[in-house]
Amino acid sequence: MLEKRDPIPVQEAVHHVMKYAARGEIEYISIDQCDQRYLGDDIIASHDVPPFDRSPYDGFAIRAEDSFHASQSNPVEFEVIEEIGAGQVAVKEVKPFQAVRIMTGAQMPKGANAVVMLELTKEIEKDGKRFMVIKRPFKIGDNVSYQGTETKKGTVLVEEGRRINPGIKAVLATFGYAQVPVVKKPIIGLYATGTELLDVDEELTPGKIRNSNAYMITSQIYRTGAEAKYFGKLEDDLETCFQAIKNALSEVDFLITTGGVSVGDYDYLPEIYKKLGASVLFNKIAMRPGSVTTVAEYNGKLLFGLSGNPSACFVGFELFARPIIRYWFHSKRPHLQKVKATLHADFPKANPFTRFVRSKLIFEEGKLLVEPSGLDKSNVVTSLIDCDSLMILPGGTRGFSVGDEVEVLLLENEKGSEWPWN
Ligand SMILES: Nc1nc2c(c(=O)[nH]1)N[C@H]1C(S)=C(S)[C@@H](COP(=O)(O)OP(=O)(O)OC[C@H]3O[C@@H](n4cnc5c(N)ncnc54)[C@H](O)[C@@H]3O)O[C@H]1N2
Ligand code: MOO
Ligand SMILES: [Mg+2]
């Protein structure tokens, strides 16, 4: 007798999976290797920035009070007593009507409290001495970047769980993080199942297709920042698949399989979970595509049984595996970010289940539009080419038309969300 499967709502399925979410361990790596990795700890300002009062311009450091009476008709002369570039520190103190020629980034000399830009000065020589002349007054603090005005020592600047981008890397360098605390990458094992599968370099033969899921999923794994361990493809043979999956489990943090989760004669994953003694969290979700996506747990490890159909496989990964990986990377917003957009094409198909339409976003005249990125079928691969988002069309609806407001999950976005489900 065919086993009866009861579909559960998507948010319930995600909730079940997230019960097993765990944070990855921290490792320290060289800042040179840290691009795109996830921070395992908060990044804290180890000193004020700027660390000293400094000049933002090339010019002259003066005492502002000496300039108060300067005007077009009353030019004021300052004796230039020293010259400093960035990295140098003045040895002399600025006294009344004295100036230090100063370059951008150099520390303010003692006694000075304002900087005059080079363009507003004239230089003259008198009795073998250098002078500079100004024709307008300056206030105390004019053109001085004061210590700590950008950030104060002790401020948390970047929270753990953020992916390191060029800006974060600059901040790491600023505060002396030669070794960066990052989260160790989880190893995501992968098997593609299916007797019909050919390798990428094989010629097509009758009844066979090339294995695209393995390549797609490794790419999706890499997009999350995790490590992929592809074990190869398996023929639909219960014993072979069982042994391979059992052995693989000890080498990975999570295991993904594609195919074999439905009710066909050669869909062996349900039998394999049973044989393993794994507990199945769910095997039917009220969604399209990916309704047969199955997640099981064995000794605390999650096994993601993604559908064989490419689009269903793709969606299953993004909705269930990705948040687990993002959580592992210490994210406080491990789920996909959800935004509202305006439908740019009719979508007349009825939705008995919640539909996740592979979509592309369009920015047009200040509006966010969305349309399907190709044929909306579970077994389609070409609609994934331009897929940067998933349009959520709720179950029990009759179809949608141009201009309707819809919710969209963003796939190529680092921000994420705490929980996008209603
Ligand atoms: N009687 C029913 N039949 C089906 C049901 C159902 O509820 N009752 N569900 C359908 C749905 S929905 C989906 S989705 C698929 C799921 O199938 P499986 O996960 O069991 O996957 P397979 O049977 O192994 O393959 C399905 C399809 O995908 C192709 N495939 C498989 N692996 C790959 C790969 N690595 N690269 C590219 N394409 C792959 C495979 O050739 C099949 O065409 O079941 C429906 N059937
Ligand atoms: O799981 Mo199937 O992809 O619903 O189409
Ligand atoms: Mg099948």
TrEMBL record:
Keywords: Magnesium, Metal-binding, Molybdenum, Molybdenum cofactor biosynthesis, Transferase. InterPro entries: MoaB/Mog-like_dom_sf, MoaB/Mog_dom, MoeA-like, MoeA_C_domain_IV, MoeA_C_domain_IV_sf, MoeA_linker/N, MoeA_linker/N_sf. Its cofactor is Mg(2+). SMART domains: MoCF_biosynth. The keyword Transmembrane does not apply. GO terms for biological process: Mo-molybdopterin cofactor biosynthetic process. CDD domains: MoeA (cd00887). It is an enzyme of class 2 (transferase). Residues 189-327 form the MoaB/Mog domain. Pathway: Cofactor biosynthesis; molybdopterin biosynthesis. It catalyses: adenylyl-molybdopterin + molybdate = Mo-molybdopterin + AMP + H(+). It comes from the Bacteria. One of its GO terms (cellular component) is cytosol. The keyword Protease does not apply. Its EC number is 2.10.1.1. GO terms for molecular function: metal ion binding; molybdopterin molybdotransferase activity. It holds the Pfam family MoeA_C. Catalyzes the insertion of molybdate into adenylated molybdopterin with the concomitant release of AMP. PANTHER family: GEPHYRIN, MOLYBDOPTERIN BIOSYNTHESIS PROTEIN. Belongs to the MoeA family. This is Molybdopterin molybdenumtransferase. The lineage of its organism: Bacteria, Bacillati, Bacillota, Bacilli, Bacillales.
